[in-house]
Specification:
Blueprint: H1 6-17, H2 23-32, H3 55-60, H4 69-77, E1 86-95, E2 99-103, E3 110-113, E4 128-135, E5 143-146, H5 147-165, E6 168-177, E7 180-184, E8 189-193, E9 212-221, E10 226-230, H6 232-249, E11 255-263, E12 267-271, E13 276-280, E14 301-310, E15 315-319, H7 331-334, E16 340-349, E17 352-358, E18 361-366, E19 388-397, E20 402-406, H8 418-421, E21 427-435, E22 439-445, E23 448-453, E24 475-484, E25 489-493, H9 502-508, E26 514-522, E27 526-530, E28 536-540, H10 546-553, E29 561-570, E30 575-579, H11 592-603, E31 609-612, H12 615-618, E32 624-627, H13 630-636
Parallel strand pairs: 3-5, 13-15, 18-20, 23-25, 28-30
Antiparallel strand pairs: 1-2, 1-4, 2-3, 4-5, 6-7, 6-9, 7-8, 9-10, 11-12, 11-14, 12-13, 14-15, 16-17, 16-19, 17-18, 19-20, 21-22, 21-24, 22-23, 24-25, 26-27, 26-29, 27-28, 29-30, 31-32
Helix pairs in contact: 2-4
């Protein structure tokens, strides 16, 4: 056999040994064979030179076939270890409208969608690229490849190496999600928690969008393809040296400059350059502070003083007010007694209102110092929080840091000339302001009230409560009965505006005269009758048993008419005593006048005083009444 036929023999032998030889290898081997004439398949001598060799002949044959080294290398290079789900190198051999053909050394070309190539890096024929083999054959028999996944796997391996070496990686914050941000690290994205963005609280996360920062990978999950990064740890490392240097040099009393890092209800955290100090709310100002935000703002730069430093706990207490003098210094010189000051209501209690004269200096206006004429029970009747108030300095206690203020001292005391303005005996107009059990309070002018006692409301009627005659808001004429500047009291009379009618009534109700009236009340001991001229008459039951009195009482009702004879007129008790024959008892030792006297004594006892009706009238010790007394009424006043 000639040397020119050696490649063909090798090719035939290769088909016997390995029937799965790839087409690409056959093409490469064919390129090494010399050109031959076209074969005429009708030639009868076509197969004369063909030698038939059996396997046994091959084994027993001692002939050897030598293959050129160049051809052997190309042949061996055709054997590749290709499997799915791995990154391999391929060469671009063709492009269609939607796909790119890639030669990966397999029996068929692979296909990649053109959308996986960026406009900045389009595919080029003949270029070698890394691809990811997804499927050896899909339903159509195509080999499916992916450039995007290959890029991802390549970048993922790079990031794994960065994580293992704990080196710094750069990334761009591309969007915000719940709990943090998404960072683009080149094909691979990572999660950046909100707490890991900065060493200080973040006010607006949108400020970090599209920013390129350095990160450190703190979590790398291979199975879930999950990466968590942090920018905060890099900042903390850079601040560590500054912190150690500051802790080594800081001293109490030192004045430092810092930035407001966070504001809470109890104080402000100040960044001193890697170290945080607490500026408590009580150390912000000498004055009253409701919330630190009233004094400072976020990111504001402040000059503060180190009050205390705990080296073990690494805690620093700061002060702002300590940089200014204490406001109570030389307070006596600044606000002498009787000085008029202007302040703001900062606090109120039941007993008074606290007024801030200047930051750190507060004075108390007691309720008793708010008005000359009004009885103030609570400062909220006059003031509200934040009101500006003008007051007079009454006293200063520098040791206890207390200032007493007064508002009523701004105006003259109207009671100084009250006796000249409201002389006893004069008649003036007033307005009913309040009604009590013992009398009515009448406003003579704003802040000046007088009292009409129930006994001074009517000449003829026994008034048990002022509401029987007066109403709140009613205007009327009253007479000044008594004025006391020291006790700040004015006694008024309503009935005294008119003359005493009893001298004439004594003539109208002469003894023995028969009169009639309408029953007002039916009591256990007698009947009260309304007579003419607004006079009340009394018909006592006399000395009867309790059962008899109740029986008589049931026979009469309010509104019924009763006729009797005038037995006695008693102006002091404002009563006309009547006698009815049916109520009299014959054979009694006591006279009717004695019975009447005992009855009147029982009726006209002072209010609320507990009294016992004489046994001669009641015949029972259990018939007792309680009505308010004049003495107790005065006590209430």
């Amino acid at each position: 056999m000639s040397e020119s036929k050696a490649p063909e023999i090798v090719s035939e032998e290769a088909e016997v040994v390995d029937e799965t030889m790839e087409v690409s290898v056959e093409q490469e081997v064919a390129e090494t064979t010399p050109e031959t004439k076209p074969i005429n398949y009708l030639d009868p001598n076509l197969f004369n030179d063909v030698r038939v060799v059996t396997p046994e002949d091959l084994i027993e044959s001692k002939d050897s076939f030598e293959v050129p080294e160049e051809v052997a290398i190309k042949y061996l290079g055709t054997f590749t270890d290709i499997s799915e789900n791995q990154v391999i190198v391929g060469r671009v051999i063709g492009m269609h409208d939607n796909d790119v053909l890639i030669d990966i050394g397999f029996k068929s070309e692979g296909i990649i969608s053109r959308s996986e190539f960026s406009e900045n890096d389009p595919p080029v024929i003949g270029a070698q690229i890394q691809v990811y083999l997804e499927h050896m054959e899909d339903r159509s028999g195509n080999t499916v490849l992916s450039k995007t996944k290959a890029d991802f796997m390549r970048r993922w391996n790079e990031i794994r190496e960065i994580f293992e070496k704990q080196t710094i990686i750069q990334g761009t914050i591309v969007r915000r999600i719940k709990g943090g941000m998404i960072v683009d690290m080149g094909t691979v994205t990572a999660f950046l928690p909100g707490s890991q963005i900065d060493v200080r609280p973040i006010q607006d996360f949108n400020d970090y969008l599209d920013k390129e920062l350095d990160f450190k990978i703190v979590k790398f999950n291979e199975s879930r393809k999950n990466i968590v990064v942090s920018h905060k740890v890099i900042l903390e490392e850079s601040l560590k040296e500054q912190r150690e240097e500051l802790f080594g040099t800081i001293k109490a009393g030192e004045v430092l400059e810092g930035r407001v890092k966070n504001i809470t209800d109890f104080g402000v955290f100040i960044d001193l350059g890697g170290v945080d100090g607490l500026l408590h709310i009580t150390d912000l100002s000498w004055g009253r502070v409701n919330h630190p935000s009233e004094i400072v703002k976020m990111e504001e730069t402040l000059t503060v003083k180190v009050i205390d430093y705990d080296e073990e706990k690494k805690r620093i207490s700061l002060g702002l007010k300590q940089l200014t003098p204490h406001p109570w210094e030389n307070m006596m010189d600044k606000y002498p007694i009787a000085t008029v000051v202007l302040g703001k209501v900062v606090s109120m209690t039941n007993y008074g209102a606290f007024i801030e004269i200047e930051p750190g200096v507060e004075g108390l206006i007691h309720v008793s110092e708010m008005s000359w004429t009004r009885h103030i029970k609570n400062p909220s009747e006059l003031y509200s929080m934040g009101d500006e108030v003008e007051a007079v300095v009454l006293s200063i206690d520098a040791d206890d840091r207390k200032i007493s203020l007064g508002v009523k001292q701004i105006q003259p005391d109207p009671w100084d000339k009250i006796e000249e303005k409201y002389m006893v005996g004069t008649v003036c107009k007033g307005k009913v302001m309040n009604l009590t059990q013992f009398g009515a309070f009448i406003e003579l002018e704003e802040g000046i009230d007088g009292l009409i006692h129930v006994s001074d409301l009517s000449w003829t009627r026994v008034v048990r409560h002022p509401k029987e005659i007066l109403e709140k808001g009613q205007e009327l004429d009253v007479r000044i009965l008594e004025v006391s500047r020291d006790s700040r009291r004015i006694s008024l009379g309503l009935k005294q505006v008119q003359d005493d009618p009893w001298p004439e009534l004594m003539k109208t109700f002469e003894t023995g005269k028969e009169v009639s009236g309408s029953i007002i009340r039916v009591l256990d001991k007698g009947i009260i009758v309304e007579l003419e001229n607004d006079v009340e008459g009394i018909v006592p039951f006399g000395k009867r048993s309790k059962r008899e009195r109740k029986s008589l009482a049931r026979q009469f009702n309010p509104g019924d008419t009763m006729v009797g004879n005038v037995m006695e007129v008693k102006p002091d008790e404002k009563k006309v005593v009547l006698f009815v024959d049916d109520f009299g008892d014959e054979g009694e030792e006591d006279s009717p006048k004695d019975e009447v006297k005992e009855f009147l004594d029982a009726q006209d006892k002072p209010a609320t005083e507990k009294l016992k009706i004489p046994e001669a009238l009641t015949q029972a010790s259990d018939d007792e009444e309680e009505t308010p007394s004049d003495e107790e009424s005065d006590d209430k006043e």
